[in-house]
Amino acid sequence: VALGRGGVTETVLPGQTGLLFDEQTVECLLDAVRMFESAGSFDPRRCRENALRFDVPRFREQFARFVADEQAAFASRRSAGATEPDRTPRG
Asked: What's the CA angle centered on 6, arms 15 and 65, to 5 degrees?
């Protein structure tokens, strides 16, 4: 159960891995807790699958892929004649 703002909206899947509430009030929090209690249980396998989206090895793999793609795009632009801006420090 969490306030539906910020990073938690990327990590909690409403109704599948948890519940989000909209307003930061006691009433909304109590309503969310009541819904949580009456919802039954969440599937632990689904919760684990969702958590693995943020696993360190997966992050490393995605980051490495991003860097490789950007390097390839840079090389392609460069071979096509695109020029890079002059980054020589001016004194």
From this structure: 90
CA distance 2 to 76: 45
30-87 pLDDT, tens digit each: 999 999 999 888 999 999 999 999 999 999 999 999 999 999 999 999 988 766 656 6
Query: Any idea where the domains of the chain sit in the sequence?
Result: 1-42
End-to-end CA distance of the chain: 56
Cα 43 from chain centroid (whole Å): 21
CA distances from 72 to 58, 68, 76, 77, 78 (A): 21, 6, 6, 9, 10
Lowest mean pLDDT among 12-16, 21-25, 57-61, 80-84: 80-84
